[in-house]
Amino acid sequence: MSVNRVAVVDYGMGNLRSVAQAVIHAASSVDHAEVTVTSDPQVVRNAHRVVLPGQGAMPDCMRELRESGLMDAVLEAAASKPLFGVCVGMQMLLDHSDEGDTPGLGLIPGRVVKFELAGQIQPDGTRYKVPQMGWNQVWQDAPAHPLWSGIADGSWYYFVHSFYAQVANPAHSAAQTDYGGRFACAIARDNIFATQFHPEKSAAQGLALFRNFLHWQP
Amino acid sequence: MLAKRIIPCLDVTGGRVVKGVNFVELRDAGDPVEIAARYNEQGADELTFLDITATSDGRDVILHIIEAVASQVFIPLTVGGGVRTVEDVRRLLNAGADKTSFNSAAIANPQVIREASAKYGAQCIVVAIDAKRRTPEDEQRIGTHGLPMGPGWDVYSHGGRKNVGLDAVAWATQMAEYGAGEILLTSMDRDGTKSGFDLQLTRAVSDAVSVPVIASGGVGNLDHLADGVSIGGADAVLAASIFHYGEYTVQQAKERMRERGIPVRL
């Protein structure tokens, strides 16, 4: 059996360690999976699967992705092989973000907008806080995407974000969560899957999602 | 909806987890990686490591501990104790921490919170506040507004040894404005007493700031944790000794909170 090469794209934005470690941990129970953290476009091109993390502000992430010379390799991956975006790595897949009025990669139609929850009250009587920080339930859109295989609907995942995705086509929403209203917290199209939440910080349910990604044959 | 979080706190020094009573009398409670893994199994929502090493010699020990924990435990990790500079934040994040917690250094130089938050984002900058209810004598002290301070809580620094003359609620508000993404609020009156959080303090700060507040100090039983959320208005509750000595599991704590109508991840 051939090696299942996974590239975690390092374009210089903050700390990739936790994403890389969680993917490596998930890969330890998957035959022949080999995980590399890389800033080399050729390594991304040679990989069978690509993970695109993202942390910090969207304008910085887009600039670094462009200036690192990795953007073309990521776009090629998006057109040809399983790609998993995390957090800002998800937000960059859309057309545009209101954060710094930044154009995205345009791979999934839609916009990234800020939570407008000032003064609104949660069901338990406390104020909504922004960023959303903590564990929220993730409700899978039907038909359930293969990456949800073996993961219960309504499982809890860890979120930290002030901006969220509004997908233009509801068919691109793979799961929703509720924070002052429902929104797509996982998006998917063809060979692309991406989450607003952090699988790498979501304990067993997060590792399960990465394992499913490593097995995924879109 | 968003779950209220339970955060076990591990005080570490010399590579071991310890627990003090009223900031003194340290007792050994075990190996940090083992304890972290156990809490993860029990469903802890996050872990906080407080480096109580007094000297700078031992500081790198915490980096190794975080590296070891982060390779095995996949939930958010916060590190506090001795965090002074933007460079300290960078080193801890690189070691695998998700958040860093400032205390005395924020008091000495509030600007560091602006700088660290601008560089790494508010979500990874926590400001820890050690607060103590003012004595009648302290209430008479003239504040910056030219009037006696009146009832309330003062901020203490240096592990709770020094009253810095700031009002805790005002300080929390200022730190949130400077870019703190979260406030870790410890009642020094209650810490180690097992008599419950200072719920008035928790409520006062929760009502004043728009960032999440973690209640800390004084948990002796599971209802104390639930009270911190339902009465104190906290977004998360932190405890150490009730979990370290096996009195209760995190799972039991969550079940009690759920019985009391609090949304938790179970």
TrEMBL record, chain A:
<dbReference type="GO" id="GO:0016829">
    <property type="term" value="F:lyase activity"/>
</dbReference>
<dbReference type="InterPro" id="IPR010139">
    <property type="entry name" value="Imidazole-glycPsynth_HisH"/>
</dbReference>
<feature type="active site" description="Nucleophile">
    <location>
        <position position="87"/>
    </location>
</feature>
<feature type="domain" description="Glutamine amidotransferase">
    <location>
        <begin position="8"/>
        <end position="214"/>
    </location>
</feature>
<keyword id="KW-0456">Lyase</keyword>
<keyword id="KW-0028">Amino-acid biosynthesis</keyword>
<protein>
    <recommendedName>
        <fullName>Imidazole glycerol phosphate synthase subunit HisH</fullName>
        <ecNumber>4.3.2.10</ecNumber>
        <ecNumber>3.5.1.2</ecNumber>
    </recommendedName>
</protein>
<dbReference type="InterPro" id="IPR017926">
    <property type="entry name" value="GATASE"/>
</dbReference>
<dbReference type="GO" id="GO:0004359">
    <property type="term" value="F:glutaminase activity"/>
</dbReference>
<dbReference type="InterPro" id="IPR029062">
    <property type="entry name" value="Class_I_gatase-like"/>
</dbReference>
<feature type="active site">
    <location>
        <position position="198"/>
    </location>
</feature>
<comment type="subunit">
    <text>Heterodimer of HisH and HisF.</text>
</comment>
<comment type="function">
    <text>IGPS catalyzes the conversion of PRFAR and glutamine to IGP, AICAR and glutamate. The HisH subunit catalyzes the hydrolysis of glutamine to glutamate and ammonia as part of the synthesis of IGP and AICAR. The resulting ammonia molecule is channeled to the active site of HisF.</text>
</comment>
<keyword id="KW-0963">Cytoplasm</keyword>
<dbReference type="GO" id="GO:0005737">
    <property type="term" value="C:cytoplasm"/>
</dbReference>
<keyword id="KW-0368">Histidine biosynthesis</keyword>
<keyword id="KW-0378">Hydrolase</keyword>
<dbReference type="GO" id="GO:0000107">
    <property type="term" value="F:imidazoleglycerol-phosphate synthase activity"/>
</dbReference>
<feature type="active site">
    <location>
        <position position="200"/>
    </location>
</feature>
<keyword id="KW-0315">Glutamine amidotransferase</keyword>
<comment type="pathway">
    <text>Amino-acid biosynthesis; L-histidine biosynthesis; L-histidine from 5-phospho-alpha-D-ribose 1-diphosphate: step 5/9.</text>
</comment>
<dbReference type="Pfam" id="PF00117">
    <property type="entry name" value="GATase"/>
</dbReference>
TrEMBL record, chain B:
<dbReference type="InterPro" id="IPR011060">
    <property type="entry name" value="RibuloseP-bd_barrel"/>
</dbReference>
<keyword id="KW-0028">Amino-acid biosynthesis</keyword>
<dbReference type="InterPro" id="IPR050064">
    <property type="entry name" value="IGPS_HisA/HisF"/>
</dbReference>
<protein>
    <recommendedName>
        <fullName>Imidazole glycerol phosphate synthase subunit HisF</fullName>
        <ecNumber>4.3.2.10</ecNumber>
    </recommendedName>
</protein>
<comment type="subunit">
    <text>Heterodimer of HisH and HisF.</text>
</comment>
<feature type="active site">
    <location>
        <position position="130"/>
    </location>
</feature>
<feature type="active site">
    <location>
        <position position="11"/>
    </location>
</feature>
<dbReference type="InterPro" id="IPR004651">
    <property type="entry name" value="HisF"/>
</dbReference>
<dbReference type="GO" id="GO:0005737">
    <property type="term" value="C:cytoplasm"/>
</dbReference>
<comment type="function">
    <text>IGPS catalyzes the conversion of PRFAR and glutamine to IGP, AICAR and glutamate. The HisF subunit catalyzes the cyclization activity that produces IGP and AICAR from PRFAR using the ammonia provided by the HisH subunit.</text>
</comment>
<comment type="similarity">
    <text>Belongs to the HisA/HisF family.</text>
</comment>
<dbReference type="InterPro" id="IPR006062">
    <property type="entry name" value="His_biosynth"/>
</dbReference>
<dbReference type="GO" id="GO:0000105">
    <property type="term" value="P:L-histidine biosynthetic process"/>
</dbReference>
<keyword id="KW-0368">Histidine biosynthesis</keyword>
<dbReference type="GO" id="GO:0000107">
    <property type="term" value="F:imidazoleglycerol-phosphate synthase activity"/>
</dbReference>
<dbReference type="GO" id="GO:0016829">
    <property type="term" value="F:lyase activity"/>
</dbReference>
<keyword id="KW-0963">Cytoplasm</keyword>
<dbReference type="Pfam" id="PF00977">
    <property type="entry name" value="His_biosynth"/>
</dbReference>
<comment type="pathway">
    <text>Amino-acid biosynthesis; L-histidine biosynthesis; L-histidine from 5-phospho-alpha-D-ribose 1-diphosphate: step 5/9.</text>
</comment>
<dbReference type="InterPro" id="IPR013785">
    <property type="entry name" value="Aldolase_TIM"/>
</dbReference>
<keyword id="KW-0456">Lyase</keyword>
